[in-house]
């Protein structure tokens, strides 16, 4: 968390840079031969990072420095201060964008970052090709990240920027403050910690763990257990095969599940569930304020606990009632099976069959 706070501080300083002059670009290219499994570590300050896996035996680094300056001479001077450092240790390649002190200048680089001068630093955009099995570790303060076709783990730390991952065979770990995410075709576990992010997940084979302060989460074709803890935002999942556990303060939840159990607790929000009811575990849903709709196949069997303090209870299932009061219903349907617990303080409870 300390690292993220530091990155955020630098990012806020960068946003204070004044815009002046024309844009100038400077190219950088370097190829590093690799034998065996490889690892890429990259740290950038501002700009795009794009990493693509391929059937190659080298790491190809393409970068473009973009700066704003009054003329070519000033642009070259500024570009020399933005250094791209590349180092190797066996098959481990490290890349870092470094801002150095201006040669012959009495003002420090930090003063320039605060925007006290007319010149401004721009960004370094990286386009990197790596062997398919390369491990990728990425840090970026401000800029988008795109990683595809990697058969290894991907670790990302970003302060501000969108993230897009596609075709990853390995675990994915993301620590972000701000930016949207699209993560698809991952064969491995996905762990996301973010402050403010809309997240879209498609075709994940593995456990998914999301800790989010603010933002909406969407998922399709998730094959594995899903755990979500968030403060504010809607959750929408379909074609889910695995247990799902959600804890939320505020937001609506909509789930279509092929198999697995459900454990949902939300302080304020409606909950809409359509499940195949294919699990030996129980199904638990509780909302402080909101309606609960729970749909199961007409051939389902199990027991039900339905409670609402302020709201109506409606069921299309033929439930054999064991206990009934103005705010609670206990009963059974079919020939035994998992237990459904649907609890809301203020809202209706509806059980549907399909």
The total count of strands amounts to 31
- The tally of helices reads 3
Helicity, as a percent range: under 10%
How are the strands ordered across the major sheet?
5-6-2-8-10-12-14-16-18-20-22-24-30-26-29-28
Tell me, rounded to a whole number, the average pLDDT. 90
Total domain units:
3
Approximate strand percentage: over 45%
- Quaternary organisation: single chain
Distance between the termini: 46 Å
Q: Shape, please?
A: elongated
Instruction: Return residue spans where pLDDT drops below 50 for at least 5 consecutive residues.
Output: 1-19, 102-120
**Taking Cα atoms only, what radius of gyration do you get, to the nearest Å?**
26 Å
What structural class do helix, strand and pairing data support? mainly beta
- Give a short account of the largest sheet: 16 strands, mixed
Secondary-structure blueprint:
Layout: H1 2-14, E1 22-33, E2 39-46, E3 49-54, E4 58-69, H2 72-81, E5 82-89, E6 92-99, H3 109-113, E7 120-131, E8 135-142, E9 145-150, E10 154-160, E11 163-168, E12 172-178, E13 181-187, E14 190-196, E15 199-205, E16 208-214, E17 217-223, E18 226-232, E19 235-241, E20 244-250, E21 253-259, E22 262-268, E23 271-275, E24 283-289, E25 292-296, E26 302-310, E27 313-315, E28 320-324, E29 328-333, E30 339-346, E31 349-353
Parallel strand pairs: 2-6, 2-8, 3-7, 3-9, 8-10, 9-11, 10-12, 11-13, 12-14, 13-15, 14-16, 15-17, 16-18, 17-19, 18-20, 19-21, 20-22, 21-23, 22-24, 23-25, 24-30, 25-31, 26-30, 27-31
Antiparallel strand pairs: 1-4, 4-7, 5-6, 26-29, 28-29
